[in-house]
Every structure is written in C-alpha cells, then in structure tokens.
Amino acid sequence: MRKIKIMLLLVLSLMVNPTITNATVTDYLILGDIGSYKLFTGIQGRVFSGPPSKYSQTATGGILDAAGHFSEGDTSYEASYTEIGGSWPFVKVQVTQHAGSDSDKWLLHEVESSFRGREKEGWLGQSLYESASIRVIDGNKIFDYGNVDYRWISNNVVVYIHYTDLTGTKPEPLEIVQAYLRKFPSTITITDTEIKSREQNEKWIKDEMERRLWLGDKWFMALQLGKAKLDKVLRESVNHMNIFLDYRENYYGISARKEKGVLWEYLQAKNGTGIKNKLAEYKSWWEANKDKPINL
C-alpha cells in the first residue's frame, strides 16, 4: 500500500510540475543593446569577473527564494546593461520561469511580500512601504519601488529589474523596462488603490499564514517523494511554522514563545513526527479561525 501511495504521489508531481521544454535563453533575456543601454558581457582580464558572458542561468526561484517560494523546477536568467560608453553595469534584469506547478498560485503574493513590513519593523505584513506602488507603464501594472526597483508577473514568469545610481543623476531605465514589458506583458490586475486598502492588507496577511502552512506540507511531501533530505525538510518546515506563529501572535494575540520552544526541541532531536503533528495542529486551528477578523 505504501509503495502504491508513493507511486501515485510521483505521478501527481509530474502532472503538476510540467517541464519547460525547448526553451532557450533568448526566450527570456534580450541579449543585445536596448536603446541607449548596452548589454554587459563582463570585463576582460578581471580575475573576479571570470570570462566575459552575456548572461547567467541558475536552477532557482530568483527573487522569490527570499520569500520561501518552493522553487523545484524553476529556472532563473540574469543579464546586465550599462550606458553606452560606460564600463560597469547599473541595470540588472532577472527573468524567472516558474515551473507551472501548484507553487505558482502564490507568485503575485510572493512578489508583493517584498514590499511589506517585516516583524523587526513592528508592522508584520501590514501595508506597503511608502515608496512602493502599483505603477502603470504602457498599460501594464507593475510594482515600482522608488523608481529603482521594478517587478511584475507575466503568467508564471516573474520579471525583476533593478538599477543602481550612486550619483543620483541617472534617469530611470525606462527603455529596458518597456522592452521587457513588450516581451512579458504584465498579468497583474490589482490597482494601487486596491493594494493599499485595508481589505487587501487583511487578505494578504491571512494568505501569508495559509501559505506558510502550505509550505510546511509541501516540504514533507518532497521528503515522501525522495526529493529532499530530512534535515532540510525539518529546517524549512519549522521555519515556515515559526513565521506562521509570529503572524498568529501579532494578529490573533496567541503567544508564540512556548510553541517555538517545542518546535526547536523537536528540530534538535530530528523528531519529524512531532513536527508534522504540530503542523497538523496549526492547520486545524487555522481552519477554525481563518475567517475571523484580525486587529490591524
């Protein structure tokens, strides 16, 4: 019976993780000059820079890795551009093809997480940073942070453009932003007013709590499928559960200290059963309380 269950899980994982086939780097990056910007290919002779290269490619979730995105099957591509005549890049472009799995339902939420408050700032997940907004460029809605950081999703592709201006005199790299918007039109529909509303703040916080528990389940499934090592699964699961507990304490008034202590003891003992039972307990609590109002 156990073998049959594992086989079914393997088949399911193949169904929800379609491989991106016949894709080339030029499907994602513009490997040429864009308007007044030159594609950066490295500096010959610089030991630390390695051989000149037009791009990099990694099997990661790109910028969403910082949000805990489950990145199995994702591929991230990066290129840099500089002003024509310049010697160092100041515009970085990262395009990440996500796997088309169930993890992708969180893409917009995870992009938005980059612009929301952290626990140490005293306003966990509550409202966007002042410099962040939904901006419309050529009819496309994108996240803009201080006119130096641009992010959007195009179905299951995430585009991230960042530029550095140490002198404070360079114009926005709009030619690059517009070129990538033509290649990957934004599928974001939420407006700036909507994303800054109380309703969206509450929805995002509750979605984050839901996502953290979902990630705990996702890591245990990866263990069952033989796609992750026990130590990593336990670390990741406990981390996501701790974040869930932080939100529960902040918005439902339930102290997280004791529960975090129990999880720490289970983690040190590599007690996967204890950790999994705690995850089930938190999921049950969440199911009973997720529709209740929270104190913003």
Q: How would you briefly describe this protein structure?
A:
With 296 residues, the protein is of the alpha+beta class. It has helices at residues 2-16, 107-113, 174-183, 192-195, 198-224, 230-252, 257-268, 272-289, and strands at residues 37-39, 56-58, 75-83, 91-97, 132-137, 140-145, 149-154, 157-163. The protein has two domains: 16-194, no CATH class; 197-289.
Work out the number of β strands. Answer: 8
**Unreliable stretches, pLDDT < 50, 5 or more residues?**
1-21, 44-51
Average pLDDT metric: 86
Percent of residues in beta strands: 15-25%
Structural class: alpha+beta
Order of helices and strands: HEEEEHEEEEHHHHHH
Q: Could you estimate the helical fraction of the residues in percent?
A: 25-40%
**Shape category:** globular
What summary fits the major beta sheet? 8 strands, antiparallel
Number of helices: 8
Over all CA atoms, what is the radius of gyration? 21 Å
How many structural domains?
2
Calculate the terminal CA-CA distance, rounded to whole Å. Answer: 48 Å
Secondary-structure topology with pairs:
Layout: H1 2-16, E1 37-39, E2 56-58, E3 75-83, E4 91-97, H2 107-113, E5 132-137, E6 140-145, E7 149-154, E8 157-163, H3 174-183, H4 192-195, H5 198-224, H6 230-252, H7 257-268, H8 272-289
